[in-house]
Amino acid sequence: MLIQLLRLIAESDGVVATSSLARKLGVSEVLFRHMVEELVHLGYLASLTHDCQAGLCPLCPSRTSCALPLETRLWILTEKGRRLVDRLPYQSFGRA
Amino acid sequence: MGRIADLVGARSPAEGQTERKAVVALVGAPNVGKSTVFNLLTGLSQHVGNWPGKTVEVKTGVHHQGDVELEIVDLPGTYSLTANSPEEQVARDYIIQRRPDVVAVVLNAANLERTLYLVAEALELPSPVVVALNMVDVAEREGMRVEPEVLQAALGVPVVPMVASRGEGVRELVDTIARLALGAYPYIPKRPEPGPELGALVGRVEDLLGEETPPPHPRRWLALKLLEGDRDAIELARANIPGDRWEQLNSLLRENEDAVVSIAGARYQWIERMVRAAVVAPRQGAISLTDRLDRAATHSLVGPAILLGLLGVLFWLVYRVGGPAMDLLDGAMGAGGDLLRESLAGAPPWVAGLLVDGVLGGVGTVLVLLPILMIFFLGMAFLEDVGYMARAAFVADRFMHLMGLHGKSFLPLFLGFGCNVPAVLGTRVIQSHRARLLTILLAPLVPCSARIVVLVFVAGALFGDAAPLVTWGLVALSLTLLAISGVLLDRTLFRGERPAFIMELPLYHLPNWRTIALEVWQHTRAFVARAGTIILVVSVLVWALADQPAGSIEESYLAQVGRLLEPLGGLMGLDWRMMVAVLTSFVAKENALATMAVLSAGGEESSLAAALPQMLTPAAALAFLVLQVTFIPCVATIGVIQQETRSWRWTGLALLYLLVLSLAMRIATYQAARFLALGG
Which helix H or strand E contains B422, and what residues bound it? Predict the structure, then answer.
């Protein structure tokens, strides 16, 4: 199921909502979120953070005018995740 | 099955009968009520100690159930048994090495998806498992109904519904534990099963482990952990199996380093099956409403239309509500200037000029913008707080992806609407050098809040009722230029991959006005701080250069510099004053207004808003506004572009590109507007 998730992300064209992927996988958004966290933990997905959260604000001369508080969470396929998806036609671990 | 088979003879004080003992390990994720269950079972008979060699606390206690003495061990709270933390390691080691007679896993019925993973792992271990389904009351309050009998059938292990906080279900739990410990309960667990290929792989690892699997570790469990890359398991295997076999095993593990994804995936699939079987009424309300709204808000065609529509409404509100307030403030500022000039009648003329024309004219004009700025940020903060901004980001990213931008470019570019500086700094999340450079080059084309303020003011002063449409159109133009530039640069200089990414769209909810007010306050404060620093300094400097050497603007140093640029300005209908305003906006965008205010001081009109129609024709105003949204960025942004690219060549290229683009767009706009008879 995690491999299906990775494959769905890799096959997506641009941004895709977690709710949409959860529906495609037939799981709740709560479970989907746990699956994403698992893949982040395993290094197949990476979480993108707002640059302020990434600790860049102290360097920013205009930090007080940084306007949009974007709390949306984003994840992207890592190189490790990409390699796994690319290898999939040659290596399958069954339906999981 | 351990200790229950070796029942220790003990005396029950009450009846003098032989008492049997069983050890029960209590495990569960944090905050599932595990400690409450432990306290209810053990009362005052608790003993607290540390796990040998660890600082992790382990509590034990005793509970008597009929003729069975249950020794309850409260293991540390943990979500899994993967040994990622000392708590997980202690829980795992205890269950493997001490082999309790029963493992009682406490679950949160309101968050089954989160807590069932622990059950999936516990079922791989030899001790029988009982599930304490706690917090069923909380689940019901949240609109969920979990059917314990169905979950029990699906899991193949006993499930006891509980509300531990009220003591409900504790007796049933103890009865079940005792029966399970005594072997009086049929125990046929339905473990997560790997697919056939993964199953075969696990079998190969088990074969290589052979008889050397170090006791008490179950061979299958160790094989799974090896395939999951578990360090403890790897060390254990390396130390216990012969060298040549270890080499084979290690080679097999390296070839299948991604097997961990399949193993964890099988567990999630199992969890999904359990939840689908046992949870009757999942939380639907808010999710369904969000889904319905998102069908439109994230639609490939309707979504952008909604975004553009909301932006239009926002600009309309800015003018409708903020406009009259700005006019009032403008009048008050003019009256204040007159009063100040009168009160300084006895002072040297340059003092009045400095304070009234320089400071009040420059900084005051910018401060007059406060009402429209506050309405703008109020609107943005409202959209963010109700959850819409994530949808705007979603729609915007699709737009960016079409023009060939790297998925990670989205976040920094989106930040650019606030300020281009964090947009450039934010490109650090992009690993690809080429994609990062492309994003840095494009970031200044995102209209920052300072540019929008200038747009709103000038459009309001010159275009009356059409101002919202003009402002909206210019923002759209800016984004269109961003798209075209992205496509051109992507097709020529940069040719990189475009990885996809996933975004969590939060549920829509009612606005929290306190949060919104705080957001507006922070931005307002930041704007006032800028007015009191950088804009004040530039205003005074512009006034001084416009006053020297002869006290006449037309013969001033500033006029001399401005007239050098006049031939270029003539192509766009801009006189030297406007060209100087463009120049000073290089320091900070709002300085364009402050400069125009200083240079228009002493005219017939009392404020810049009133003076602008005399200074600019509509065609020239359009050209000026196009320049504002496309001109080279402020000096702070250029500084970070150089800092981030570490290249003057790329910085120069970025500036040259923006300069050429802005001049070309501005001339084209002016000539087109003249053609459409908007005045020359």
Answer: helix B420-425
